[in-house]
Amino acid sequence: MTVHTKNTILFTLSLLCFVACSEDEPQIEPGDGEIFLNGELLQLGGASAFSNCGTGKLEAALVHVNESNGRSLQINISNLPAQTGSYTLQKEQSGQNRCTTNLLLTNARTSYQNVLAERFSIIESSTINELIITRFDTIAARLEGRFQMTLVLEEQIRSDPENFSDTLRITYGTFSVPILLND
């Protein structure tokens, strides 16, 4: 069993214990979804949305983990409005402050055995980069939607046996994530 697998199991058990021990707290359903990435269906898990810089907007982290080879892909979307609708995804510019812009910014990164391997940025001019929020439920603390985007390799930090393609084409993605608010 790899260190990554052991850490994942320990984290999951800790989370289950916390949820089981706090009967007065509402149960939070874990986040999930799926993406068609370069024609391959990948399942998303461990996803969540959380408050973004105290602005009333949200940031979502959508994660795919391949336990068999230690690879993971994380897609980040910042400045999600707290309402349903259709939005254009933009490239996060170097030095840009996510907290002071109203643009929906996105990027992705890959890791190999918990070490950052690659960074990807969105290609704004070549394809449709769209996010549609289909459900924003404050009572259930749930955010749901679908998206499509194309990202290109911006920086390769290290190589590993299974680097992703230099272009990530997500032709269809869905997500359903809990909204985790800071107290």
What does this structure look like?
This protein has 183 residues and is mainly beta. It has one domain. It is built from one helix and ten strands. The protein has one helix at 3-21; strands at 32-37, 40-51, 58-66, 71-80, 85-91, 104-112, 115-122, 130-137, 142-156, 167-180. Strands 1, 2, 3, 4, 5, 6, 7, 8, 9 and 10 form a ten-stranded mixed β-sheet that branches. The longest helix is centred in the first third of the chain and has 19 residues, at 3-21. The radius of gyration is 17 Å and the shape is globular. Mean pLDDT is 79; it is low at 1-24.
Oligomer: single chain
- Sheet/helix structural class: mainly beta
Q: Approximately how much helix is present in the residues? A: 10-25%
**Record field, number of beta strands:** 10
Number of helices: 1
Element string (H = helix, E = strand): HEEEEEEEEEE
The description of the largest β-sheet is: 10 strands, mixed
* Average pLDDT reading: 79
* Number of separate structural domains: 1
Strand % is over 45%
State Rg: 17 Å
